[in-house]
Amino acid sequence: MSRCFSFIATQDSWYRYSFKRSGLKSSTTDLGDGTIMHCWIPKTRNPSKPTLLIIHGFGANAMWQFNGLIPHFISKFNVYVPDLLFFGESYTTRTERTEAFQAQCVMGLMEAHKVTKMDVFGLSYGGFVAYSIAAQFKERVGRVALGCAGLCFEDDDSENVEVFKVTTVEKAASILLPQTPEKARELVRLSFYKPPPSLPSCFLWDFIEKREFYRLAFYSSILHGFLLQEQNAHPGNRTPVSTVGGYYDTTTLDALLVS
């Protein structure tokens, strides 16, 4: 299917058009040391509006995760939507893979765009990056909201919340980074309370084969870095933080337990 027609490539083009139509433009920034950050930034920054930094989660690039949200924020905020490292067009030749390093790169990007103060929203893995931003750069961050991040998840919560437990990082990677239609369907079943009744294999192969979405080696190393950092306590953070999660969530990164 991908050789003659790609639904994923077509949808990606549509999202790109949609972001531009909303008043954003694509921007790439060289942070040095082999690190390139891509971000959607305002075509025209309005100094009377506050700045909102929106950070995507694990999976596809920022366009795929936030296309439906941008129109709701664009009238009230100067919106910045970066691609985290190895997602979309952002990458680095450095070896760091923790969310703390992701946070430093995002803030380096914002500094390059001369943004000194911002509110932050992070989804899933992006929630951990947002929390790290608030902890490391508290003087530059106002309000923080975390969606489906599981950041406050504790061991005792596993008795009261339905979670999907895995025994190794490799098992977690096989679920979060599906390489076959069967594994992709498993991820969909875990991710949706009411999953689609059927997903054609040709569509799923099209999604898997797009290397800009599934860079397996890099994504696995990010997952390893995330779980390694999770062994230590989260850094202290005095910034007010709101957390939002779904009652039926089973694949937030802390709820996907490696036990």
Question: How does this model look, in words?
Answer:
This protein is α/β, with parallel strands linked by helices. It has one domain (7-244): Alpha/Beta hydrolase fold, catalytic domain (Rossmann fold). The protein has 9 helices and 8 strands. α4 packs across α5 (125-136), α6 packs across α9 (216-230) and α7 crosses α8 (201-209). Pfam families: Abhydrolase_1 (PF00561). This is AB hydrolase-1 domain-containing protein.
Terminal CA distance: 39 Å
Q: Main beta sheet, described?
A: 8 strands, mixed
Rg of Cα set: 18 Å
CATH superfamily: Alpha/Beta hydrolase fold, catalytic domain
Helix content: 25-40%
Highest CATH level, the class? Alpha Beta
What would the CATH topology be?
Answer: Rossmann fold
Supply the number of helical segments: 9
- Name the helix and strand elements from N-terminus to C-terminus, one letter apiece: HEEEHHEEHEHEHHHHE
Task: Please tell me the overall pLDDT.
Answer: 81
Beta-strand fraction estimate: 15-25%
Number of domains: 1
Low-confidence stretches: 253-259
Shape category: globular
| SSE-based structural type | alpha/beta
| E-strand count | 8
CATH architecture: 3-Layer(aba) Sandwich
Protein name: AB hydrolase-1 domain-containing protein
InterPro entries: AB_hydrolase_1 (IPR000073), AB_hydrolase_fold (IPR029058), Meta-cleavage_hydrolase (IPR052370)
Domain AB hydrolase-1: 50-149
Pfam families: Abhydrolase_1
